[in-house]
Amino acid sequence: MTEPTQKPKRNISKEQQIQLVRLIKKMLGMAKYTSEIKKAVQQKYGLSTRSVQRYITRARREMVKHTKISIEDHVAEAYYFYRGILTDENSTQRDRLRARERIDKLLGLDSPTRTHKKELHLDLTPAQIQAMSDEELEKTYQLLCNEASTDSR
Fold first, then answer.
1. Which terminus of the chain has fewer CB atoms gathered within 10 Å of its CB, N or C?
2. Taking the model in full, what pTM does it have?
3. Taking a C-beta distance cutoff of 8 angstroms, is the pair 56, 34 a contact?
């Protein structure tokens, strides 16, 4: 007979659910990473990752509902908060840099640092590459490096 591949479902009471959502809200308020929250809740309650994610989503929704502020207003409030840090004479350079990063993220300006305009193609099979001498392999490698560096300029 085969054994089940999944663990049996673990149900928690309504009281435990309320307590769990409060705990997650507190952890979110302490700026804990989602991965930290998942790990802690899984250890304490024995829930699956997916179940914990649902509770995190529920906690976030309750937090947004409690503030009674639209997402757009919250983004605007955060933007002006970070602008205040940028213009404050007493802010450290680190604080200003962090505020600039957060503004960029809020405005969707945090793009990848390097993009390739053209894909590099190497028309060689793995067997052909293995059959190359060290000199041929180095020459091919340098050719690809040169192609990549001219594409990124």
1. N
2. 0.48
3. yes
